[in-house]
Amino acid sequence: MRASFILASLFAAAKVLSHPGADHAAEAAERAEYFKQHQVKRDLSHCAGKLDARGHTKRAIVRRQELYRSLQLAHGLENRAPSDINKSHHSDQDYDLHTPPELLFGTNNSCILSPEVILGPYYVAGEFVRKDITDDQRGVPLYLDTQVIDINTCDPVARTYIEIWHANATGVYSGVVAEGNGVESDQANLNRTYLRGIQPTDPDGISTFKSIWPGHYAGRTTHIHVIAHINATMLPNGTIMNTVASHVGQMYFDQSLIYEVEKYSPYTDNTQSLTLNAEDDILAQGAETSDPLMTWVYLGKEAKDGILAWLNFGIDTTIVSNLSAASFYYKDGGVTNPNPEPIVPPS
């Protein structure tokens, strides 16, 4: 019988009515202690050989290269090699027009992530299963490509649901009415769903999203939340109402790229202070044993043309985390959760 561990995300230090940049130390410490106690593998380095042998790495290289080309065509950009790419955060090589695709799209630094960190205070249960999560939001186009690997078997996790959410260009989350999240009196925000969505993984554990570059807010560096739902079921209204997960993580970007995007409108309208990667305690926790920064490439010559970012991350399918939702999105709209604290199971 498969072992199943229950981990309740402690929410006491990050209540729904707190600022999104609030102190999450208690929840972060509880999660870190749990994974220490259960000796959970924190990266995918042990899976590299098996992924290569079964052709998963090669297929990922080809698929991401084809995705890059198709996005260039969709945006009316020149069909060119991606020369304007940053130096990878795990590489000192300069990429140019002659960089082979197997290097650009197949580097191991995009295959060793398994960060388990806090859920954060603005999770909304009941989001739509959809690839395009932009709604009416303006910003630099961002295309996300993720692959999920079982850290115990080193096999891709197929037919599971990956959920992501992040703030808009001015640092505001949809679906939640709370102090510090935009205009607190704006009750209509409960019914907004921008920059939130869920996608099923294919047989290779792949899911993709179309979004915009996330904005920052006080106390946190630029990031995207990601969770994995095992054995979830889509409802007739096209949403998934599931408050358990086998992965709770966050994805990040190079500081140089953050600076670049922040130069453009509407990001320049963001009045909240910018927290750097080096100042973010939650990023530091995830980076202790893994690499939570996404690999990326410009679709054109500069960031404003659009960005393709990709990341592989591992999950332990024997772990189940209880999630505490700030609100729920039903077919008739959003409803604030009156009891956001999760029920802690008996020891």
Q: Could you please say which CATH topology applies here?
A: Protocatechuate 3,4-Dioxygenase, subunit A
Terminus-to-terminus distance: 20 Å
The helix/strand order is EHHHHEEEEEEEEEEHHEEEEE
CATH architecture: Sandwich
Structural summary, described in words:
The protein has 347 residues and is an alpha+beta fold. It has a single domain, classed as Aromatic compound dioxygenase (Protocatechuate 3,4-Dioxygenase, subunit A), CATH 2.60.130. It has six helices and 16 strands. The strands form five sheets. Strands 7-4-13-12 form a four-stranded mixed sheet, with no helix packed on it. Strands 6-5-8-11 form a four-stranded antiparallel sheet, with no helix packed on it. Strand 12 and strand 13 form a beta hairpin. It starts with a strand and ends in an 11-residue tail after the last strand. Residues 1-19, 80-99, 107-115 and 342-347 have low confidence and may be disordered. Residues 1-18 form the signal peptide. Residues 120-223 form the Intradiol ring-cleavage dioxygenases domain.
